[in-house]
Amino acid sequence: MKNTLIVPQKLPRHVAIIMDGNGRWAKAHRLGRIAGHRAGVKSIRMVVKTAREVGVKFLTLFAFSTENKKRPKREVEALFALLKQFLIKERKELIKNNVRLKVIGDIEWFPESVQKEIKKTVDATERGSAGVHIAGVHGLTLILALNYGGRQDIVQACQRITKDIQRLEITPSEIDEKAFASYLYTKDLPDPDLLIRTSNEYRISNFLLWQLSYAEIWITPVLWPDFSKSVFLEALISYQNRKRRFGMVKNA
Ligand code: IPE
Ligand code: IPE
Ligand code: MG
């Protein structure tokens, strides 16, 4: 029988979301694209709060892809400004709720002032509400994918592995899947169990290519600014009713 309620033991440990459809939402409301991004921030707050409340441990949000850099300068700058605002506004709330912020992607490319706010929030949330570094105090780890590309992630891992081989810190035969994964931006994070994409697009768009190998995929026509708590719960419940086989035969 299919469950229609959240079962805590069956929750995905790691949920990854491709937040898409801000531009189309804005167009439908006769607004500019930037207003769509602004409206999308509200959905970010909702997913963070809901993930925390139901007990999801890791939430990765695709906020800016390596390809998004090719968008008009005005739009890119507006996204920087929204990110900065989000970090400043939410910092206290994240700390209070024991949410740890992590970033994956190449943020060196971001303006200094945005990098500063990112580092400040990552550092402050690492310490948690007690203000000291204690392992395991965090309920939720929120991972923002910023200037992130799945291919770029794999390339940067290869570059660093090659350097470590040159320095004789690792030998080629020691490179197995586990060792390779430890060079990716997502080192120390479990692979996503559930991938959500909004706005009815059926593609990965260069998100976590390596890490999504066995993720369950859930796609909704809902545009990101309209993504509500009930739609999020629907995705989690759908996941709980899936049968994951990882290439094996059940009860063999
Ligand atoms: C997603 O919305 C937000 C980002 C990629 C930053 P889009 O801006 O891609 O919205 P659509 O796809 O044009 O509707
Ligand atoms: C993916 O959405 C990137 C983010 C959500 C940040 P895009 O809107 O950039 O992807 P495409 O262009 O539809 O594939
Ligand atoms: Mg899009």
Q: Class, according to the CATH hierarchy?
A: Alpha Beta
Series of H and E elements:
EHHEHEHEHHEEH
Low-confidence stretches: none
How many DSSP-defined strands?
Answer: 6
Describe the global form.
globular
Look at the structure and name the CATH superfamily: Decaprenyl diphosphate synthase-like
Rg is 19 Å
Overall mean pLDDT: 95
Amino- and carboxy-terminal Cα gap: 22 Å
> What is the CATH third-level topology name?
Undecaprenyl pyrophosphate synthetase
Assign a percent range to the helix content: 40-55%
**CATH architecture descriptor:** 3-Layer(aba) Sandwich
For the largest sheet, list the strands in their spatial order: 3-4-2-1-5-6
Number of helical stretches of at least 4 residues:
7
**What is the total domain count?**
1
Main sheet, how many strands, which sense, barrel? 6 strands, parallel
Write up this protein.
It is a single chain. This protein has a 6-stranded parallel beta sheet, sandwiched between helices. Strand 3 (99-104), helix 4 and strand 4 (140-148) form a beta-alpha-beta unit. Helix 1 crosses helix 2 and helix 3 (73-96) packs parallel to helix 4 (112-127). By secondary structure, the protein is an alpha/beta fold. The radius of gyration is 19 Å and the shape is globular. It has a single domain, classed as Undecaprenyl pyrophosphate synthetase, CATH 3.40.1180.10. 33% of the residues are buried. Helix content is 41%, strand content 14%. It is built from 7 helices and 6 strands, in the order βααβαβαβααββα. The site of one 3-methylbut-3-enyl trihydrogen diphosphate (IPE) has 11 residues, from strand 2.
